[in-house]
Amino acid sequence: MSKKVVVLSTSLRSSSNSELLAKSFVEGARDTGNEVEYISLKNKDIRFCIGCLACQKTGHCVIKDDVADIMNSVLKADVVVWATPIYYYEMSGQMKTLIDRLNPMYSKDYKFRDVYLLATAAEEGDEVFEKAITGLSGWIDCFEKTSIKGTVLCGGVSSGGDIFSNTKLKEAYNLGSHV
User: Fold this and answer.
1) What would the pLDDT profile of 48-57 be if each residue is shown by its tens digit?
2) Domain extents for the chain?
3) CATH superfamily of 4-177
4) How far apart are CA 121 and CA 128, in angstroms?
5) Residue 5 and residue 29: Cα distance in Å, rounded?
6) Which residues share a beta bridge with 115?
7) Nearest one of 65, 62, 85, 71 to 14, comparing CA atoms
């Protein structure tokens, strides 16, 4: 059964390792017949949440930028995939800003059940990724029917393209092919 998959690539660097990981996941998901929408946050206008909470009354954010279109895609997806570089042992600021801005989704009907995390970091070790997983889990906890179904965590890559000498691209492809 084909699924609608939305991949959110939060790195702003061209040909970044997390972007390459995301594109490998996309390839695996498409090769197995899924409908995949790849959304890069590069060149997107995504402003900070101002904490007005109007979205809790209206279901819409008062800020007019690219987030409404991204949110619409996420709401209609069966699978949501977040790809992020790790900065200071945490998800990218762009990813956190988008998570905050998806607050209007809280009261809406959503289709997604499965969430995946793809992350890259210069340092190695499971502890490098723990805070990003915890941060994403906080968002997922707000959507009772949803859970993290898989991760690909790749340490030891810092310069763009370092990941090409790593087996994690194949792992991301395989994970994408099994959504």
Assistant:
1) 999 999 999 9
2) 4-177
3) Flavodoxin domain (3.40.50.360)
4) 8
5) 8
6) 80, 148
7) 85
